[in-house]
Fold:
Amino acid sequence: MSLLTSLALAVVLVALWEAVICLWTYTLRRQDAAHLWLAVMSLGIVALGTPTALLYESTSAHQAANLRFAMMAGTLPFYVGLIRFSEIFLGQSMRAAERIALPTIAFLVLLSAIPGVMYTGEPIIRTVVGFDTFFVDTGTTATAGLILFPYFGLTGFLAHRYAAAFRAASEGRGVMLFAGTIALAVLLSDVAIAIGLLNTPSVTAIGYTALAGGFIGVLSRRFVRSVARVEENAHLLTRAALERTDALREKDLQLAQAEALTAVGTLAAGLAHEINNPIAFVTANLNHLEELRSEEDAEIEFEEVLAETQEGVARIRSILDELRRLADPARGDEAVDLTAVVKSVLPIIRYEARGRAKIETHLEWVPEIRGDRRMLGQVVLNLAVNAIHATEAHAPGGTVVIATTADHSIVQLHVKDRATGIP
Structure:
């Protein structure tokens, strides 16, 4: 194998690598068909470049004619890929040119397969300047000159479209200029070789491979830029989401604080009511004890009133203990008696329900659960108050039922009312 053949096959391998890269990219981004048509274009270069390389090893006119036919056949997928890619790359419809040029090229390819129509079969010894390479080519007929016209027309059409896009383009101008220069150089070189002005190697495969490489570079740069934009947008969205989350968290905190203040007001009013009764009772008993102290035979009654007074004080202490347990800081995870929690907030619930609803309780013994006593008390209080308000609005004088039940290891709290519920 000569050095020239080896170099030509190396160009074919580069084109094949470009086709693989484009197909791999297309499998990753199927919405971008430009990579698919670049792959078709590169495979056309492989189909064109392989017989071109083997032509330099030709030893007969018949072999050269077959290789020339294969070279022409390779131009068909190349131009299909180039036209479809240009349509996407330039954003212009080229289906009219495709319907005219491609069938014409396909017809000429078929003609070249007929002996004597394009090639005479006469052996011609050709030399390649600079490589000391000799190979046997085949003579061409006058009809063979027709081959150049479709290629001239299609190349000129594409050059015109790229020139128009070049003037209006904001990016990719260098690649468009490069593409036009390559196409013109390849065309002029092929014409010069065909009419015998040059005895140089064919640069068609080299030029087309460089053209495909330039387009791949532009698409890769666009892809990198799009990825950068996506990453930037993702960063902006993440930052906006975090800011929004912080704002919502702050709003939730404000609502929680407002709800806590409301609960504190309800709690204070209920406790004041609950404490006021035993205080009034204790005060009355103390006044009565003051009267009994001056009577000599009132010892038994004095002891009874004193016991009742102590019971009233114990009731006040019990209420304050329940308040202290309800207001204890969160301990996270502790053993809690749910029924006891409900009983601790019942005085506040009954105060809130006065004149609005009746409170009915069914509190059973339930096993202890793990939780936060203060938070559970707040939950019971909120549920009951909501039920009372709903009952007042939709069923005045109705009943709110609060119950605790246990089913094996499952402990349940029930707060029921006859309101319409949340729509």
In short: The CA atoms of residues 47 and 222 lie 28 Å apart. The longest helix spans residues 204-292. The chain has a mean pLDDT of 81. The first strand starts at residue 119 and ends at 128.
